[in-house]
Amino acid sequence: MMKQYDALALFSGGLDSILAARLMMEQGKKILCLHFTSPFFGDNAAVPFWERKYGLEILPVDISDEYCQMLCSNPANGFGSALNPCVDCKIIMMKKAKALMAEYGAKFLISGEVLGQRPMSQRRDTLNVIRRDAEVRDILLRPLSALHMEALPVELSGEVDREKLLGLYGRGRKEQLSLAKRFNIVDIPTAGGGCKLTEKENARRYYEVMQKVRKPSANDFFLANHGRQLWNGNIWVSIGRKQADNEQMRQYQKESDYILRIEHFPSPYCIVRQTENKPVPAEELQLIGSILASYSNKACAFFTEKKEPVSIKIEHNGNLERIGVEPKRYEQYRELRFEEIKDALQQLKKNMAE
């Protein structure tokens, strides 16, 4: 039989989610923390560390597919400063947590949200929208700000002692730090949600995927997280910046992708993807090979000294071919700057609001 718990807690790895879980454990409740993961947030590798460090039980929960579908379908409650659909994000998590309650015998859910802490997702009206749309109105307990909210059935029944809950409000962290000290939490996690969608650098990476890939999958967004992202129409080129990029990118290559490597010299990993499922023309692969070679100092030095083409291997659908290129960059293959998509994002948000 699956181990049973009193409640399931949403756990980001941030201080507020730690404190919310520990506050309920202090009341003798068995708590299972749910750490949601997607291409934009979450860290499976950190779970064992968090469990040891904070004395919690944590279950990683992958919501990549449903999250990407929501992101690309005009989130009902809009975006934040970049591409962050914070309200709809919480709704997805709450719905998933609710769906897991029966499996673990949980009677209620826990979230570390603090009223007034964040301008988009933690106003009173948006907190109420999240409760309503996720259909968790009577089972979602926010222990850190509970005294500013109506009592839930688990409080009214006495199963949770409301007098031991808190009434935190606003952006200050003084009370959270005091509570952390009480729980002997020495290493305080950095403030902030750790969501890539809130960062302009990542927003410009994801924007092209959302605009040009038909029904983008988690794989597409995971790939967009790594290396250089160059676009020319519907031809998408990902080039690793460092060894870590190369290793990660291999996980996300598809059978239909073109894989380019520099022969005879250390090479960045290069994945070429045609978003309309058409073959990439040979002349475009020639240009991309030149661009790839331009990111290798040794390949550039070889060409300068020997005046001979740099050999590029191209793998596609089980076939291997070689081409010779001159290391060179072409303006038509480039990375977008956030300033270039800023107006388009504003228009997108305006259209959604209407």
Automatic annotation (TrEMBL):
Organism: Taurinivorans muris
SUPFAM superfamilies, sorted: Adenine nucleotide alpha hydrolases-like (SSF52402)
Record keywords, A-Z: ATP-binding, Methyltransferase, Nucleotide-binding, Transferase
PANTHER family: TRNA SULFURTRANSFERASE (PTHR43209:SF1)
Molecular functions (GO terms): methyltransferase activity
Residue span, Thil AANH domain: 4-42, 86-148
Any Gene Ontology biological process: methylation
Domain of life: Bacteria
Residue ranges of every copy of the NFACT protein RNA binding domain listed in the record: 237-333
Protein name (database record): tRNA(5-methylaminomethyl-2-thiouridylate) methyltransferase
